[in-house]
Amino acid sequence: MADGSGPFDIVVLGGGSGGYACALRAAELGKSVALIEKGKVGGTCLHNGCIPTKALLHAAELADQAREGEAFGVKTRFDGIDVPGVLAYKDKVINGLWKGLTGLIKSKKITVIEGEGRVIGPNRVIVDGQVYEGTNLVLATGSAAKSLPGLDIDGSKVITSDHALVLDRVPTSVVVLGGGVIGVEFASVWRSFGAEVTIVEALPHLLPLEDEANSKLLERAFRRRGIKYELGARFDSVKTTDTGVVVSLENGKTLDAELLLVAVGRGPVSAGLGFETAGVTLDRGYVLVDELCRTGVPGVYAVGDLIPTPQLAHVGFAEGILVAEQIAGLNPVAIDYDGVPRITYSEPEVAAVGISSAQARERGFDVVELTYNLAGNGRSKILQTQGEVKVVAERDGRVLGVHMVGGRVGELIAEAQLIYNWEATASDVAQLIHPHPTQSEALGEAMLALAGKPLHVHN
Ligand SMILES: Cc1cc2nc3c(=O)[nH]c(=O)nc-3n(C[C@H](O)[C@H](O)[C@H](O)COP(=O)(O)OP(=O)(O)OC[C@H]3O[C@@H](n4cnc5c(N)ncnc54)[C@H](O)[C@@H]3O)c2cc1C
What we know:
Number of domains: 3
Pfam families: Pyr_redox_2, Pyr_redox_dim
Distance between the termini: 70 Å
Number of helices: 13
EC number: 1.8.1.4
Bound molecules: flavin-adenine dinucleotide
Active site: 436
InterPro entries: Class-I_Pyr_Nuc-Dis_Oxidored, FAD/NAD-bd_sf, FAD/NAD-binding_dom, FAD/NAD-linked_Rdtase_dimer_sf, Lipoamide_DH, Pyr_nuc-diS_OxRdtase, Pyr_nucl-diS_OxRdtase_dimer, Pyr_OxRdtase_I_AS
CATH class of the largest domain: Alpha Beta
Shape: globular
Radius of gyration: 23 Å
Number of strands: 24
CATH superfamily of the largest domain: FAD/NAD(P)-binding domain
Binding site for NAD(+): 178-185, 201, 265, 305
Strand content: 15-25%
């Protein structure tokens, strides 16, 4: 490795959640690793995704609390949003984490190569004219915001989440195209900051991938918050004007706003990167892999948003670790993607793990369901939040899914994911004591009720 170009045990292309997790775990297992990154290590999640959005959502929560202090007997006043202040807070969080990650990568003696890489063979990547060779190659170039045919992103009136995260003002009004996680989270932030918001979703519900009961609860809560939505409504066209945009829907309606946020999903970053020269198979830009993230070409793997698995940072982490452990000769088990917890961090939050009632029936389970209303939970009452915990289980069998809506319920999904992934039954969990008064009791109460011994349940 005299010139630092290899051969390395592993060359990782892309330093986001999937790529850097793979690099860290491989280095821990004694492998020599080159990590190629054209932007900043940490990728979308740290710089343009999970972390900045959650910082904005926290600022939004404080804004709501300032408005609502009176309901708790506290004298507060909402005087508005200092956007530069919010952006500075968000950037401080990102920079602190980035510094920590950079130090961690350095401490593991991973060779970081700055620049755009292109694959020129199953184990070779070229960056600025220099070729890096690895016994193994891990593709982890992630994803980017998509648009619709004929819908041009201009970055000022028609924007994506990347632009929204650095917007220098609170817009007076926004149309959010797409009622998935990203659209719903921005709608929530902007409403708390004082904007008029309308979400346009082509499918019949917001968060269409969630259990329908959760989607309906979110819709009700958003309606109460004054967030408007058009469901089952397809986008037709957008015209920019001096003051903003006019969005036309196929149903004939038009919506005027200052901004259009396009949040119609994210697509893989693979075009022009030479992946075909490595011999891997692509489908609509996604790299196809088996359940162990193997591309079919010996020694070539792909992880994260680049492959057609759930686009979540923790999925990227898990896939990166899975690949590193395989390369190191360990025998890791395939990921059960149903067992991956997912959270939408809006107000209220929506969190789930496992499968929905509808999916459980489709798969032939004899399904039982239990819905516990947060109205019966002391801590939720104190926080003045409404919502539900719904448990889907196999009759006399394991818990198949947990679906929740309510303030802070995202924190409860960690317990639910243990229940699902350890294949626990309601009776297994019912004997475990939950601390009082916490929101975790709602999950405990749901399990007690499902096990046939309800405590605080009104019939
Ligand atoms: C607004 C938003 C909010 C989100 N919120 C959450 C959340 O709350 N929780 C959650 O789990 N997930 C969230 N996500 C999703 C999460 O960010 C992604 O799932 C995750 O970042 C995927 O990791 P990755 O490593 O596959 O790709 P990325 O993080 O996109 O990383 C890929 C990296 O590869 C680099 N790269 C690409 N091409 C090249 C090349 N040719 N040469 C060198 N480097 C290259 C890129 O610069 C990038 O750093 C959010 C996403 C967005 C957009």
